[in-house]
Amino acid sequence: MARTGEVDVVILGAGINGAGLFRDLCAQGVSCLIVDKGDFGSGTSAAPSRLIHGGLKYLETGEFGLVAQSTLERNLLLKNAPHYVSPLPTVIPIFSWSKGMWAALRTLLGSTSAPRSRGAILIKIGLAIYDFYGSRHRVMPRHRLVGRRRALRDMPALTRSIVATGTYYDAKISHPERLVLELITDGLAASMLAAAANYTALVSSSNGVLTFRSKGAGQSEDSGVFSVRPKLVVNAAGPWIDDVNALLGAPSKMIGGTKGSHILLKHDELVRSLAGRMLYFEADDGRICLVYDYLGLALVGSTDIQADNPDTVRCEPQEIDYLLESVRALLPGMSFGRDQIVYAYSGIRPLPASDTSVPGLISRDHSAPVAEPEPSRPFPIISLVGGKWTTFRGFAEEVANTVLNRLGRGRKVTTRSMAIGGGKDFPTEAVARTAWLAEARSATGADLRRLDQLLSRYGTKALQIARHQSPWSNEDRLPGASDYGTSEIDYIVRNEFVEHLTDIVMRRTTLAIGGSLTMGDLKQIAAIAGRARNWGSQRISDELDAAVAQLGDKNLVRL
Questions:
Q1: SS (H, E, C) 206-274
Q2: Owning domain of residue 196
Q3: pLDDT (average), residues 201-214
Q4: Does residue 63 lie within any of the structural domains?
Q5: 429 pLDDT more than 60
Q6: 301 forms bridges with which residues in the sheet?
Q7: Domain count, the chain
Q8: pLDDT at 107 exceeding the cut of 70
Q9: Would you give the DSSP letter of residue 44?
Q10: If we measure between CA atoms, which residue out of 213, 216, 217, 241 comes closest to residue 227?
Q11: What are the record keywords, sorted (predicted)?
């Protein structure tokens, strides 16, 4: 592309929405370049509640179309990405039988009043509607309501002030950052006319030409600079959309984001009590909170605070207090403290600009406004505003259809039943999994337990990783408590667009968020990356310092 200077579409931003669109356009044969100023999936897309859900709470605000699309896309993801997306039984503690009816009606009619307690009757109605919308491609059971006695027998740790609980099914995603990467690699595999670049910043837009600079360490000032002339630009920069539009010469005020923070607790008693279920509940101020088992830790979220600077976002002490107090009130028989936190993260939701005083009532729906070409800017700009992690495929399909129409082309394939990455041919049944593992063992000679780990981590791409042998170590295991192998890390560094140490421990693996990362492991990973990428001793030292600083300051990781 740099050589010819021509490309059909440039996508600015490689989060979930940009990556989903990239894969869709590549599948249609469109020449497409996707770039991100950081790592793929390192912004807002790395800071979700790690849920794939239909948006039960959006029924209150009358966003029935969003719920319909979300439940459909949830069901499709359970089929297309079964290696990362799995069902999640969700329990709603209920504290009254009839509260909230009139307040819910006012909200449905457009009131911007604060959220309030929702009684059993209201929740029953909502869950019945939710089941109806989730009936397309249904893969999970319908909801049920049980009284206080049965609820406390099922989960004794709950506060005894409940009157009932409702249980319904949504889904969770184990490796969201890897799913973003897989969408990009799927796109590259689908088209010889595609390219992707992380750590690449847009530096100028002039007379229809976009100029980029790679931020790779060790490069000279000009070696990482290239330019292309696109026919169309998609701004998928999330909370940075307005900044990017200004650089493109199309100033805008589209984003009015809110901040969401989460913490992960090492709390074995709570994880055992949850028994694979999520608690979805109201905090004292009416905000919706949640807690569920993520990789053996208790993930607690989330806050919803108006904020507009994604570059400095972090989980603040008052947010930690809020989240801890919320679970204390719900589970009074358990103790919760800061010493249990092994990881924290925060991100800005790229929601549309809004004047509402209640952040939770800002629409999570998406839109794609177009800035038409001008004499000094011959290409149109489509901005991807809002949206949810769950609906990325549907959003991408809508925008791809717009792009194809503007390019005068037709759609060749649909992504509705297109498997993602390691989800292709993934064995979802126990018998099929056993057969896959036996065949993989025969092909690689690897231990069955190890193959099972890799299959859970990478889907069917586990076979490639199992075949990869690190040239740097005879002992294929990191020195700390983790069960990641040195060959596994070496494969990731060589094949998955790794530029920095944090890419490996925060996005290509779950080492950091899973609470198993040790300083010894970090040093060994840096050494492996250094050998594979020809980093000198100073670069390795710098990478270690940067990783320790980021993990400690922003993620509260103690190494």
A1: ECCEEEEEECCCCCCCCCCEEEEEEEEEEECCHHHHHHHHHHCCCCCCCECCEEEEEEEECCHHHHHHH
A2: 5-45+177-256+364-407
A3: 94
A4: no
A5: yes
A6: 262, 290
A7: 4
A8: no
A9: G
A10: 213
A11: FAD, Flavoprotein, Oxidoreductase
